[in-house]
């Protein structure tokens, strides 16, 4: 039986999954050693989150006949993964669009080597169904919960900016998802900036409705990030290339088998099947692996500049310095439209 170190998610979904907060609170900085797949004289140490890369590779059959070993370490969020990458504790790990910016600003030793682009419909600011708030501008003076330094934090900033407001125009409560959900249910905050699958869960179980989404204000990108030393190792580089290719094939499998993946994802994370399926069809299953190209770098630079200006990071960075483009070959541009699921699919 495979060992699972991180407990199954409670109804509050204590793990931030793909969006990845950029704060270590409720997370810690160490990973729990999990199982090892494959065989061979090269071992790829992978930092993962529960229900993410290992789960999808296994479900898609991409861990069969593996000519090298993958040793999995499970972390609660993106920032601890990047701490482990920087410390050479793991070779590579998957995170959302904001943790690499924060890690780079903290002078971490990281290189973005892969990207995937999905819809931003699940990146949302939600309010209660009976709330009088009808548009983003109505948030002025209201209490909004968000995970500090997360992709949702940037989405909140960008959405307010689009509505002619600044982050100073709202009363921000920096809360991790579990605490934010409790605050939202208890009426202690007026709105919650969040991402799928929390968005789907809030709609299903917390009487929430979407006030606005990340469409047009966030980039919908997720990344694979590696340690530079691993990339200097020819054997490791060859293995990383293969690993990224397996992830791409697994993502295609998810799109073709959303129901099967939702069952696996739900079991891995503790999500009810209907919530998992809603999140798969709206966000998780729409992702397409793309090149880490100039538009993607420019989009991340905007996040970096925004966070530096708000003093959420200690310094301004040049994001291009933290990118390795050698694995871009043959991949579509980062502007490639996400996949979509037709009605009734």
UniProtKB/TrEMBL annotation:
N-terminal signal peptide: 1-19
Domain (Solute-binding protein family 3/N-terminal): residue spans on this chain: 43-257
Listed CDD domains: PBP2_SsuA_like_2 (cd13558)
Major localization listed first in the record, in broad terms: periplasm
GO molecular function, a single term: ATPase-coupled transmembrane transporter activity
Pfam short name (any one): NMT1
Intracellular or extracellular location(s): Periplasm
Alphabetical keyword list: Signal, Transport
InterPro entries: ABC_SsuA_sub-bd, Solute-binding_3/MltF_N, SsuA/THI5
Gene Ontology CC terms: membrane; periplasmic space
Keyword Transport belongs to the record: yes
Superkingdom, taxonomy of origin: Bacteria
Family label: Belongs to the bacterial solute-binding protein SsuA/TauA family.
Summary of the function given for this chain in its UniProt record: Part of a binding-protein-dependent transport system for aliphatic sulfonates. Putative binding protein.
Stored PANTHER family: ABC TRANSPORTER SUBSTRATE-BINDING PROTEIN, ALIPHATIC SULFONATES-BINDING PROTEIN-RELATED
Record-given protein name: Putative aliphatic sulfonates-binding protein
